[in-house]
# Entry
Amino acid sequence: MKKVGIRFKRTGKLSFYITDIDDIKLSDSVVADTEKGEEIGIVSKVLDIEEGEDLPNIKRIATEDDFKTQKEMDDKAKEALEFCKNQAKELNLDMKVLTAEYTLDGTKLTIYFVSEERVDFRELVKIIASKYRARIELRQIGPRDEVREYPTLGMCGKEVCCRTHLQNFEPVTIKMAKEQGLQINMSKLSGACGKLMCCLRYEEELYKENLKKLPKVGEIVKVKGEKEKGKVTSVDILNLTVKIRFGIDDEDEERYETYPVEKIKMSPKHNKKEEKVEDNETDENIVEDIIE
# Structure
């Protein structure tokens, strides 16, 4: 018996199953039962099963007939999508219908939509169910999930992370941008979805660790090999260097030098417990941050 991790969507979460198919391998297409019904997924991991694990079995390796059925279901879903859009418009529902998908066995139809407010779509569900004779689910998704549904380029020029590899949406805060020394500018910090870019989180831990080693801008510090103290004018967080201005009391004699952080003798206050900062500066707090 083998334990396999299956992904039913390109960037979907892994679902684990067991199988007695000895020659199963990565990238194989398989049919398995999910909470929605039968679906075709891709094998993304093959592991040894651990003792005591209770996992469902995959049904089979996907066949040509399965792919043919999936194509039929996809075509049927497109038809249902157009029907749903027209009905939502006739019912004057404030919603944007995005995509629709059928399970492989055709027992469930899921329709995804976005809306800024809560929508009473009970009448719409009745109309769709009477036409397509299946279990109907209308699922409201957010702006990030909406962008995932279409091929979209990010500011970096590559396809957005949520369509290529990002499986989970984790909170992204203004505090992360501040810690990375970025200017608080929504046009530069926002992704295609209008929210803060997910990539702000990728190097967050590195920036946090480096910031602990660096003095703050404006701090008066002593430099090894220098007789006088200097004032920190800027820091390079990634390279761990500090730019110091000497001649604080005599502007005619001022000079600027850059040193690695190892040469900086910081005040004892630097090692004390940092001032508490609220970590709830999410997208909703962006306006307050810009005003400040």
Notes: The helical segments are 64-90, 122-132, 143-148, 161-164, 174-179, 186-189, 204-213, 286-291. Residues 216-265 form one domain.
